[in-house]
Every structure is written in structure tokens, then in C-alpha cells.
Design a protein that fits this description.
Blueprint lengths: L4 H8 L1 E4 L5 E4 L2 E4 L5 H9 L10 E3 L17 H16 L3 E2 L10 H7 L8 E4 L13 E4 L2 H10 L1 E4 L3 E8 L8 H12 L7 E6 L1 H4 L3 H9 L8 E3 L4 H7 L8 H11 L12 E6 L6 E3 L7 E3 L12 H14 L14 E4 L1 H4 L2 H11 L9 E4 L4 H9 L2 H7 L25 E4 L14 E4 L2 H6 L15 H11 L30
Parallel strand pairs: 3-4, 3-6, 4-5, 6-7, 9-10, 9-12, 10-11, 15-16, 15-17, 17-18
Antiparallel strand pairs: 1-2, 2-8, 13-14
Helix pairs in contact: 2-5, 6-8
Length: about 500
């Protein structure tokens, strides 16, 4: 019988099936952070239980950790309690714990793959919806609730209903300047944030195969934003090359054995999915969101949709969202002034993201009115940034690299966007108040986010809003010639195909 990639991994981990009920599934790896684990540990203590397989559980704080002065006590009392509780719980239950200032610390969904803890063929869970990230490496990975965290701690198993399967195929080659983040935002704009509800999604096609490992991690990270249970990509040479030599990856004969198995992890040619969806890569452009959910996105050169053809219910929700954002139907976002830029999160906090960002700002200066938070996803990413000299490029452009953590992805630490301010963010969610009460978030790729804070000659031409007609319209004209890479400064321009600026690029 032909099987999908999901079927092969799921079936290999079934312990037993409950008649007319869920499946008992064995879990290879449990990741724990400080927010969703305290109640699980409390439940274990109340029942006098120990972790069944502590060697398969890894803990680290990330949501509440400050991104500065991590060597000092945490000032926020709630954050301190949660971070300290995780350290104590991990010690009490004999679990591996990568605390703040530990060189293996970072965002758990960044650390897992980069340390070789996440491997093809695994089942992986965490009390965090963006656990879907790990599916990029050919794993079945999904977020779970706190009671389920306790269940896995106690038994290394979980009760789960088997999800349906969906394959999303992206045919053709991605255009210049189009990244995995743009692919995800494009899919959500077409399928909505509920378009994959109830499904486990496998991504396939030429465009997907062309993505780097970092890009694949970004794409699978955002699967949950379409309502999917998880997302995954069949492992290939890109995957194997990424894993080889990493700290916790198999070595020697174990590597050879693992690799032979990993090469079998792909959907059979005649495998049947519950749903098939196809997109043409040529239709995807650099994207930006304009509303209050990730599905409200558009090409950065486009205009916000109008209410024409909407039902009364749709119109009401749409207008409420635009009112919150301070935008109008049919409006262009080019020329809009932004206040904050955030590079980081488990979506775009990897070394590739910092390389992309640095390639755009090299030789330029940050706009004075922009507050920028550049936050590596881990200490390993921070080390790579400095080894490659990206820190010098960024510092010369006026940027500061902060310490690892979830940072401004969500308002659970010190990095909050003030009410009414606009933030171009490389994170995963733009809900009302997601980055702080009253904050206004626009999701974009690192390439797009980078340009939004660079000055150029257009800054000095006029303070009149009409200056966009002189500069931004030129940008649209040159879209096919240049990588589109700016967000909303007073004026912007794109780099050439090499990702570098020259004076001749100025409109």
C-alpha cells in the first residue's frame, strides 16, 4: 500500500489504537520552555511521578527571557518566576536544561535543529504551536497543551486523533528576492488562516526543494498559521548536509544507519492525500501583511483590497481590522512611515536571516526615527554572526545585536511595541496586541524588513507625502530589475541581484 511521508512516520510510532478513539503515539523528543510546563511539572509532583524517559526531554527558557543583560537578575517578576521555575523543575526531574547564558540556549525551535536534536523520522512535541517548525527536517512535529506535556513526561506517549493529510505543491522557480517567508504569507493570503485546519501538510515541488534548510524551517514554522496541525518536508541532501556533524547528530556507523533510513522518508509516488493544493511560484512576490491576522497579506507593490463583493460579516471584520491598523481599503503601503523593525523569532532568527538583512543595510545608515531590535535565535546564531563579520556590518549601519530570545515576537518580555506604533516584524503573528497592547504589526521577510529603515537621498527631497510618486513609483517600475527589499521608509530602493547596493541603484 502506498503511503505518504506522514503515514510512514506516524505508523512507525503507534503504540496502540483506541477503538473509536485516539491513537497512543510514542514521542521521540519533548521540548519544554518556561511558559507551558509549570502546571505539567506540578501535576507530576502531585501524583508522585518521575519522567519516564528523561533523556528524551530538553528544557530551555525563551519566551520570558530578556534580550539584554542576561547575566543579571530578571527584573520582571512574572518572567523571573517562570524562568526560575523551569530551572528548578529540570533539576528536580533530572532533565537537560539550557538556561540563560548557557551557550546552548536560545529559542527552542531554533536550538533543536541547529544542535542536531531534531532529526528526520522523529515524532516531536512541545507546549508551543510553532513546534511545526521541526517538520522541515522530515519529522512529525506539533504543538500540545500543558496536560499533554504532563502525559508525555509520565509515559513518553500521547493520545492523539490522526489528522488528515494535505500536500501543497509549489511548481516552478521562485523569483529574485522571494523568500520562504513570502511563500508562506502568499499561501495564507490565498487559503486564509483556516485553510489547512485539521490537516498535516507536506510541502513539495521545485520551489520547495530549492529552499535552504533555514528557509524550510521558516515555512514549516508558519504552517500553524493556516490552521494546520503541522507541516513537513521530506528530507533530502539539503537536510542531510545540514545535520551532518552537528553536536547531537549520529556519528560514524550510527550516521550511516540513520542516513539509510532517512532516505526512505518520502511519500510514495502513488500516495494519496486527503487534499491536494498547487501554486505557481511565478505568482509569488515579496509580501507584507496589512491586517490583524497572517492571512491578510499582499504583494508589497499591491494595494489593500477593497470591500467590493464582501458579505456584511466579512466587511465588518475587514473594516475592524483596518481601523485597528489605521489603514484604508484600496490604500498602498508604500511610503508609510514605520517606527520599529524586529528581526528575529523562531520564524526568522537564523543565520541566513541575518545574512539577508546585512546584505541590504551594508554601507547604509539606519533611519533615525526607527527603533530596531535584531535578536539572534540562539547563541550559536550570535556566534555565527560574529564569525562572519556581520556584526560589524550591522553596527556600522547603526544597528545593535541583542541577546537570544523570543523578544518582540510576543508581549511576554521587555521588548514590547508601544500602542499605536507600527512594527515591521519577521515574526509569525500580527494579531491585535501581539507585540504589545495597541501595537500595529506588519509581517515581512528579513529582506523586506531591512530596507524599511535605511536612509537614502529621497529622505532629503521633500517631506511631502507626494514624494512617493517620485521615488516609490520608480521602484515599482524597476521591480523586475532589482530585488524588492524595503518596507515603508519615506523612500526606498532595491539592491542588485548580488544583494549589494551601489550609488547607481538610487532612483
Amino acid at each position: 500500500m502506498a503511503n505518504t511521508l506522514f503515514d510512514k512516520i506516524w505508523d512507525a510510532h503507534v503504540v496502540q489504537k483506541v477503538e473509536d478513539g485516539p491513537t497512543q503515539l510514542y514521542i521521540d523528543r519533548l521540548y519544554c520552555h518556561e511558559v507551558t510546563s509549570p502546571q505539567a511539572f506540578a501535576g507530576m509532583r502531585a501524583r508522585g511521578l518521575k519522567c519516564f524517559r528523561p533523556e528524551r526531554i530538553y528544557c530551555m527558557p525563551d519566551h520570558n527571557t530578556p534580550t539584554h543583560d542576561q547575566d543579571k537578575p530578571i527584573e520582571d517578576p512574572v518572567s523571573k518566576v517562570q524562568v526560575d521555575a523551569l530551572a528548578k523543575n529540570a533539576a528536580d526531574f533530572g532533565l537537560t536544561h539550557f538556561g540563560m547564558m548557557n551557550k546552548k540556549n536560545g529559542i527552542i525551535h531554533v536550538v533543536g535543529p541547529e544542535r542536531g536534536l531534531t532529526l528526520p523520522g522523529m515524532t516531536i512535541v512541545c507546549g508551543d504551536s510553532h513546534t511545526s517548525t521541526h517538520g522541515a527536517m522530515g519529522a512529525v512535529a506539533f504543538g500540545i497543551g500543558t496536560s499533554e506535556v504532563e502525559m508525555v513526561m509520565a509515559s513518553q506517549c500521547i493520545l492523539q486523533a490522526r489528522p488528515k493529510t494535505m500536500r501543497i505543491t509549489i511548481d516552478g522557480k521562485l523569483g529574485k528576492g522571494v523568500t520562504a517567508k513570502d511563500v508562506a504569507l502568499y499561501m495564507m493570503s490565498k487559503m486564509t488562516t483556516s485553510g489547512a485546519t485539521g490537516y498535516f501538510v507536506e510541502y513539495a515541488g521545485e520551489a520547495i526543494r530549492s529552499l535552504t534548510m533555514e528557509g524550510r524551517l521558516t515555512l514549516c514554522n508558519l504552517s500553524i498559521e493556516m490552521g494546520a496541525r503541522g507541516g513537513m518536508i521530506a528530507p533530502d541532501e539539503v537536510t542531510f548536509e545540514y545535520i551532518k556533524g552537528r553536536e547531537y547528530a549520529p556519528k560514524g556507523a550510527e550516521w550511516d544507519k540513520a542516513l539509510a533510513y532517512w532516505k526512505t522518508l518520502k511519500s510514495d509516488d502513488d500516495a494519496v492525500f486527503d487534499k491536494e493544493v498547487r501554486f505557481d511560484a511565478a505568482d509569488i512576490q515579496p509580501m507584507i501583511t496589512y491586517g490583524t491576522n497572517p492571512g491578510m497579506g499582499m504583494a508589497i507593490t499591491a494595494h489593500i483590497p477593497t470591500t467590493e463583493g464582501m458579505s456584511d460579516v466579512e466587511k465588518g471584520s475587514f473594516e475592524k481590522s483596518l481601523h485597528y491598523m489605521g489603514f484604508q481599503p484600496g490604500e498602498s503601503l508604500l511610503g508609510k512611515k514605520v517606527d520599529y523593525v524586529f528581526l528575529g523569532a523562531c520564524t526568522n532568527g537564523r543565520i541566513e536571516d541575518f545574512r539577508a538583512f546585512a546584505s541590504i543595510v551594508k554601507g547604509r545608515k539606519k533611519a533615525d526615527h526607527i527603533t530596531a531590535w535584531l535578536v539572534p535565535g540562539s547563541w550559536m546564531v550570535d556566534e555565527q554572526i560574529r564569525q562572519e563579520g556581520l556584526d560589524k556590518v550591522l553596527e556600522e549601519a547603526g544597528f545593535e545585536i541583542r541577546q537570544p530570545g523570543c523578544s518582540a515576537c510576543l508581549a511576554m518580555n521587555d521588548d514590547k511595541i508601544p500602542a499605536g506604533k507600527y512594527s515591521v516584524s519577521t515574526s509569525n503573528r500580527n494579531f491585535e496586541g501581539r507585540q504589545g497592547p495597541g501595537s500595529r504589526t506588519l509581517l515581512a521577510s528579513p529582506l523586506t524588513a531591512a530596507g524599511g529603515r535605511c536612509r537614502n537621498r529621497c529622505d532629503n527631497r521633500s517631506e511631502n507625502v507626494n514624494v512617493k510618486n517620485e521615488c516609490h513609483e520608480t521602484e515599482i517600475q524597476y521591480h523586475n530589475k532589482y530585488l524588492y527589499s524595503f518596507a515603508f521608509g519615506k523612500c526606498g530602493y532595491g539592491p542588485d541581484y548580488s544583494g549589494t547596493f551601489s550609488e547607481s541603484d538610487d532612483p
